[in-house]
Automatic annotation (TrEMBL):
Annotated source species: Sander lucioperca
Domain Ig-like: 16-53, 90-188, 947-1033, 1150-1226
Fibronectin type-III domain segment(s): 202-297, 330-425, 430-523, 526-628, 631-728
Region (Disordered): 411-431
Protein name (record): Myomesin 2a
PROSITE patterns: FN3, IG_LIKE
Lineage, broadest ranks: Eukaryota, Metazoa, Chordata, Craniata, Vertebrata
Gene3D superfamilies the record matches: Immunoglobulins
Length: 1248
């Protein structure tokens, strides 16, 4: 809507004039003087006072000057006598509030300070202003829970230990010279984390009433329960003052918010606290109550004060006027002061007279016509109050009381009226209609109708929730007494609904009906004043102006601007435009060249025309002729973050002699005149991202335009901007719509109002209507959707939310990111069912063939079909088709797979919008292999119906080289027979096979070539027969040959024929391939070199060795798998050895002498050792050992005896090796038969 200002008739202007001028004054020293004058003019003149050409400022000399203006009479009062400090009362100071504390939020257990800065005139350090703090209109006093400080230009209230009791409206009232000034704001205190999940919040406002000598009544307010379970009761705790030990007063939770505590000690002081209970646990304790002292409340009533001669006070107790009475009178007025379902509190008036001794009471009760019963037998009551807990439901009781002291008991009091416990269903009814209206951009005004039944109402709890959410949150945490409340701390632009509950001593009422949903927006108002009026161009008769939009739009869009002008030497403003200007730039025509003009601007919205801006600085109407460009204008900010921001501006209207080619940007800290140029070279676009800022620092910017002639005028300084992101700031998110596959940019604003719009830009140029993109908005979220994105859409995209505190963001769309999103978009628009495994087959037992595939995920609505050779196949005889949603498997089973099943198999899947297809070609070799396997499995199935081999014949070789031919059998019974065959000849093993053990084996010891052949095992009974064959020949036979890995190193043994090289093995057979070599030449068996072997070893005999036979010998043993080599060096040039001379056997008669002599050789000279029966022989008279010339060794035994019989040996050895020769000696007695000679086993021992 456009607005037109109302025309106002202007009076004839009049120049200012003095009707009564100042006149000279002569005064006494230190006396005040008053100067007067009267002026006229239209409009009303502004009067300024000067002294010596300097303006008079009362603030520079507090108390000295006072300026007044009454009915056109202007006066200046000069006080020569300044009052002394001690004579100034704080209320006579001039105090103004500057920065004021706002609505605050705290948490139980935390701390918070409310601060208001002040300007005090005069500012005297020892005389602070008089300040008072109030909470809910109740004056606060300094304490440990409320610390107050005034001075240093501020008034501060600190709450160091927050509790919900501290919630409320806080008011600071300052007493000033002109009365009082005050400021108020609400403090919200939320519950601390619960002691257990789901436990209620702490009770609040705990106070003690009806204080007596041993009794108090504790009352409190219930906490708000929003999402917690209902409160089932409360525990009351007490603590003596000065102690930290809390004692629980009630064994069972009390259900009302009052509890009588008795049994206190007279004269002792106590604190009380309360804990709430529900099914989830016990709450945190409340703040403790103020200290109370257990005293007789009636004590002061029994005192009388008598004045004598108007000067003296005489205090007399009523007891002194009773006379000498020992036994007290009976109590009176017995009644119930508190009646609840949990308990009843009895009260009565103390007796008169009281007697001359300490007094206590005895209480009796009666129900109906029964007998009176005493109820306080365990304790003495000193107070006229007593709580009774054990009354029966539905019963009526009467009570009477006796007064007792040490002298005796009074008569019983009159019985009370019948008393009966009442039900506790006493909560108020639900509040009435709830209405929410707009208040500010973060608060809502909520009001409601009071409940129909108040029932001692304590206040109200207000709850709220975001529209569409199920979770409620508390708006206040302390019962609010009025039926209207301002809910603060809401999200700007979000929609909320509210509900209200009433509170009394019994708890919370039912919830009211919910209010209508309301969006958090400021209430409608006229916009604030525009500002920053700037001259952009002038041609001598017109001036082009620009200005900045109002900081506050007033809750609706600013749609009009009105400009006024005046000559700088005139006080009369004239309208420039009668028709509203919609843009923030305007050319003012019909001006006089050389004249100075001032301008002001007003903004308008739905609510009307706002206040005018401050007048601009005087601007001279003078034609611009400079060649450099004019100033850029409309500097604004976007994407303000903690270390960066984006500065934007508009091109100058006046371009100079040539077009603008770029811009230079300067920056300075607020308050500094030292500007830093951020761009080394002029940038050719009208935006700049500034980085490297310091968080929390405030900066100002200016822009200078550049053309071919040079650098032009700098722009007007920008508004100071603080490098700090708005709370809850979000960034632009690039994504792909999961439903449509559209590529989009999305932004969620942290705040928004009803008039806000999302303005999208590419490279900081507004996009507007464009077929390539479409912008949509819903609530606080805006989305920019690309129609057909490609490389032309790459660039920097930004979005600004209008009518907010600078909510904005940007995102650079790169080629890689776009390609990734395009791939995802294609996948969404052309969805496929993702497969873990494509179509495959497997042959099952019985010869069935299963065709299957597995999807990553299937829905319950999936559909599919199998196509074989272009024909759809369905479940039927011999074919079963099924699927499993949980595993994603789709399968088809063909019971009888034959040659007719050759071809191409395909599965087509439809799952929602997604599709998939997988094929398998079963032709040629692939089909033949599958068919062969199917036929085999069918035969196997038939075979396994009777006794069968679960494992066919196989072999193992034991350590003793026995070949074990084994198999495993299944589905056998006792009658099942088992037979072994070789080449159709039955083999009967020593141990008959035991088929019931499940395994049978045939051992073949010392396996050799003769054991080759085809072995067969036959298993049979009345159900059928199964056969297993194993061919042991060719390569299989070679595999069964003993391994050569057990071969020992070659050993040399001297024999009568010469030298024998021997290689020992676990098992040796001539079928094993062995090759002997001498100096790498193969040796063939001959008379000189004989080759042979036994079951234990392979050997080679060198007969009559000579020097030609010296050298290295080796044997190669091949067992069909590996070749094993052993070698021995027979060079002989260095090794110690026996050349000759020793026999193998010596037979000698008793008493003869035996000489064993031989020749030895070796280099170096070997050592010679003789042994008898493997024991070294030492040289003695009977046995003499000699070694002469390093060549001849002898052993001489004189007069042999039968004890000298045995096995003798000589060991000849040097460092290169040696030889060991054995001789058997037999001694027989004369006349005995000469024994048969027994050959020994000479051995050669050579060390390499």
């Amino acid at each position: 809507m456009m607005y037109k200002k109302t025309d106002v008739l202007e009076d004839i202007p009049k120049l200012p004039d003095f009707l009564v001028a100042l006149r000279p004054h002569t005064v006494w020293e230190k006396t005040p003087v008053k100067l007067f004058c009267t002026v006229q003019g239209n409009p009303r003149p502004i009067v300024k006072w000067y002294k010596g050409g300097v303006p008079v400022d009362p603030l520079t000399a507090p108390g000295k000057y006072k300026i007044e203006n009454k009915y056109g009479v202007h006066s200046l009062i000069i006080s020569r006598y300044v009052p002394h400090l001690t004579e100034i009362h704080p209320s006579k100071l001039e105090v103004s509030m500057l920065d004021r504390f706002s609505v605050s939020f705290g948490v139980e257990g935390g701390s918070i300070s409310l601060v208001c800065t002040l300007v005090v005139v005069p500012d005297l350090p020892n005389l602070p202003p008089l300040a008072q703090w109030y909470r809910d209109d109740k004056l606060l006093k300094p304490s440990k829970l409320a610390e107050m400080l005034v001075g240093g230009g501020a008034a501060r209230l600190t709450l160091p230990h927050l509790a919900k009791d501290d919630e409320g409206l806080y008011t600071l009232r300052i007493f000033t010279k002109d009365g009082t000034t005050e400021h108020s704001a609400y403090l919200f205190v939320s519950d601390a984390a619960p002691s257990a999940p789901g436990a209620p919040g702490a009770p609040l406002s705990v106070k003690a009433y009806d204080i007596n000598a041993d009794y108090v009544l504790v009352a409190w307010k219930p906490p708000n329960t929003v999402n917690e379970m209902a409160i089932t009761g409360y525990f009351v705790d007490r603590c003596e003052s000065g102690s930290d030990t809390w004692v629980q007063c009630n064994d069972a939770p009390v259900k009302v918010c009052k509890y009588p505590v008795h049994g206190l000690k007279v004269g002792h002081s106590y604190h009380f606290r309360v804990r709430a209970v529900n099914s989830a646990g016990i709450s945190r304790p409340s703040r403790k109550s103020d200290k109370v002292t257990a005293l007789d409340a009636a004590e002061s009533e029994r005192l009388q004060v008598i004045k004598i001669e108007g000067k003296y006070d005489i205090v007399i107790k009523d007891d002194d006027l009773e006379g000498y009475v020992t036994i007290p009178g009976e109590p009176t007025d017995v009644h119930a002061s508190e009646i609840f379902k949990s308990y009843v509190v009895l009260s009565w008036k103390p007796p008169s007279p009281r007697g001359r001794a300490p007094l206590w009471y005895v209480i009796e009760k009666v129900s109906g016509t029964g007998a009176w019963q005493r109820i306080n037998t365990a304790v003495k009551l000193h107070s006229p109050r007593y709580p009774v807990f054990d009354l029966q439901d539905g019963q009526k009781y009467q009570f009477r009381v006796y007064s007792v002291n040490l002298y005796g008991s009074s008569e019983a009091s009159e019985p009370s009226e019948p008393i009966q416990k009442v039900d506790e269903d006493g909560v108020p009814s639900a509040p009435g209609q709830v209405v929410a209206t707009r208040n500010t951009k973060s608060s809502v005004f909520v009001q409601w109708d009071a409940p129909k039944y108040l029932k001692n109402l304590m206040g109200y709890y207000i709850d709220g929730r975001i529209a569409g959410s199920k979770e409620w949150f508390p708006c206040n945490h302390k019962p609010f007494k009025h039926t209207r409340f301002v809910v603060h701390g809401l999200i700007p632009g979000e929609s909320y609904t509210f509900r209200v509950q009433a509170v009394n001593v019994y708890g919370l009422s039912e919830e009211s009906q919910e209010s209508s949903s309301i969006t958090v927006e400021p209430a409608l108002a006229t916009p604030s004043a525009p500002f920053g009026i700037t001259l952009l161009s002038c041609d001598g008769s017109s001036m082009t102006l620009a200005w900045k939009k109002p900081k506050h739009c007033g809750g609706s869009k600013v749609n009009a601007y009105y400009i006024d002008k005046r000559n700088a030497d005139s006080l009369v403003w004239k309208e420039v435009n009668l028709v509203a200007v919609t843009e923030r730039i305007c050319t003012v025509d019909n001006l006089t060249e050389g004249t100075f003009y001032e301008f002001k601007v007003q903004a308008a919205n739905m609510a009307g025309v706002g206040v005018p801006s401050a007048p601009s600085a005087p601007m001279k109407c003078e034609a611009w002729t400079m060649e450099e460009p004019g100033p850029a204008y409309d500097l604004s900010f976007s994407e303000v973050r903690c270390q960066s921001l984006v500065l934007l501006w508009k091109a100058p209207v006046y371009t100079g002699a040539s077009a603008v080619t770029g811009y230079l940007v300067d920056m300075a800290k607020k308050g500094s005149s030292e500007f830093v140029t951020l761009t080394q070279e002029a940038v050719n676009h009208r935006y700049l991202k500034v980085t490297g800022l310091k968080e929390g620092e405030t900066y100002v910017f200016r822009v200078r335009s550049v053309n071919a002639a040079g650098v032009g005028k700098p722009s007007k300084l920008s508004e100071p901007i603080c490098a700090k992101a708005l709370p809850g700031t979000q960034e632009i998110v690039a994504g792909v719509d999961e439903e449509t596959g559209d590529v989009f940019l999305s932004f969620e604003a942290c705040e928004i109002c009803e008039t806000s719009n999302f303005v999208w830009s590419k490279n900081y140029k507004a996009i507007g209507e464009c077929p390539r993109v479409a912008a949509t908005s819903k609530g606080r979220t805006s989305r920019l959707t690309f129609s057909s994105p490609d490389k032309d859409d790459l660039g920097a995209y930004s979005v600004v939310v209008t009518d907010t505190e600078g909510v904005s963001a940007s995102h650079t769309l790169t080629e890689d990111a776009l390609n990734t999103m395009l791939e995802l978009s294609y996948a969404i628009r052309h969805p496929i069912v993702p497969l873990k495994h494509g179509l495959n087959y497997e042959v099952l037992e019985k010869g069935h063939v299963r065709f299957w595939l597995q999807a990553v995920k299937l829905s319950s609505s999936v559909s599919y079909r199998f196509i074989v050779n272009d024909k759809e196949v369905t479940s039927g005889e011999g074919i079963k088709i099924s699927h499993d949603v949980a595993t994603g498997v789709i399968q088809m089973t063909v019971d009888h797979f034959t040659r007719a099943n050759e071809g191409t198999y395909t599965v087509q899947i439809h799952d929602g919008k997604a599709k998939a297809q997988s094929s398998l070609v079963m032709v040629g070799d692939v089909f033949k292999a599958a068919l062969k396997e199917a036929e085999f499995q069918r035969k196997e199935h038939i075979r396994k119906q009777g006794p069968h081999f679960s494992e066919y014949l196989y072999f193992t070789v034991t350590e003793d080289c026995t070949v074990m031919l084994a198999c495993k059998v299944a589905n056998v019974k006792k009658e099942t027979s088992f037979h072994w065959y070789k080449e159709d000849d039955e083999i009967v093993p020593e141990t008959p096979p035991n088929v019931m053990s499940g395994a049978c084996a045939l051992p073949i010891p010392m396996f050799s070539r003769k054991d080759q052949g085809v072995y067969k095992a036959v298993l049979s009974d009345d159900r059928g027969k199964d056969t297993s064959l194993f061919d042991i020949s060719g390569k299989v036979h070679v595999c069964l040959l003993p391994s050569g890995a057990s071969a020992s190193e070659l050993v040399l043994q001297c024999t009568p024929e010469g030298i024998r090289l021997q290689c020992y093995m676990n098992y040796y057979t001539e079928e094993m391939k062995t090759v002997w070599k001498h100096k790498e030449s193969k040796i063939a068996s001959s008379e000189k070199m004989r080759i042979g072997g036994t079951a234990e070893m392979a050997w080679m005999q060198i007969c009559d060795p000579s020097d030609k036979e010296k050298g290295n010998y080796s044997i190669e043993i091949s067992d069909g798998v590996q070749t094993h080599t052993r070698s021995f060096d027979l060079s002989g040039q260095d090794r110690g050895r026996v050349v000759g001379g020793l026999p193998d056997v010596v037979t000698i008669m008793e008493a003869k002498s035996l000489s064993l002599t031989c020749t030895v050789w070796g280099e170096p000279t070997p050592e010679v050792t003789w042994f008898k029966n493997e024991q070294e022989v030492a040289s003695t008279e009977h046995t003499k050992v000699t070694f002469e010339g390093g060549k001849f060794a002898s052993l001489v035994i004189t007069k042999v005896t039968p004890e000298d019989s045995g096995k003798y040996s000589i060991n000849v050895r040097n460092k290169y090796g040696g030889e060991f020769v054995e001789i058997t000696v037999s001694v027989y007695k004369q006349g005995e038969q000469i024994p048969e000679p027994k050959l020994g086993h000479p051995k050669t021992n050579a060390d390499s």
